[in-house]
Write a structure and sequence with these properties.
This protein is of the alpha/beta class. It has helices at 42-49, 79-82, 88-93, 97-100, 108-120, 136-149, 166-181, 194-200, 216-220, 226-229; strands at residues 2-13, 16-27, 31-35, 57-62, 71-74, 154-158, 186-190, 203-206, 212-215. The longest helix is centred in the last third of the chain and has 16 residues, at 166-181. The radius of gyration is 18 Å and the shape is globular. 35% of the residues are buried.
Amino acid sequence: MVQLICQHLSLGYDGHEILHNLYFKINAGDYLCIVGENGSGKSTLMKTILGLQAPLSGKIVTGDGLRKNEIGYLPQQTLVQRDFPASVWEVVLSGCQNRQGLRPFYNVEEKRLAHENIEKMGLSSLTDRCYRELSGGQQQRVLLARALCATKKMLLLDEPVSGLDPVVTEEMYCLIESINREDGITVVMITHDIHAALKYANRILHIGESVFIGSKEAYMKSKFSDGFAGQGGVR
């Protein structure tokens, strides 16, 4: 079932267009990787899907009961975020804010969900620890648990393994794969790691001067993969 359609989107800033007439669909259960050169509009597209930025033209339509405020989001982490003075529990529970509505307190179900996602990410022993005292990999798992508290259907990830060492990177990819395959949550991930995209994703969206959307098998046979081949991207 189709969860989201980007209909003839044109994206940019201050009237300057960086993406024109973009059209694609995301189906329930997809693992879609968005790839392309720096500045091609990948993060802009993700922010537009989330409703954080308006398109220059076109629109985004959701289906399968999906609402934009029910999409989990793991943004690129900033230095300010890394130094956030809150406990693991507080950070993860804050992912339930959209569920909370006008209530001043989190309810039992929201707290249960936070505990469940903390356990799923292997963070139970760190619940009371201060977020800024954790390693980079632990912090990313905390933010992933937080994003999961916001959604049951779709998760958007912007370079989720940036700055992590190879071992922790692989652990993170395995967690994301489990969320997609075992929990049935649609994953949309921006990445520069084309090897990971071709290993884990079932569909690739390549954006730049021209656009490709299709299966990873079709992507590997297309001209779009050629630019990455010289950089060790596709073998």
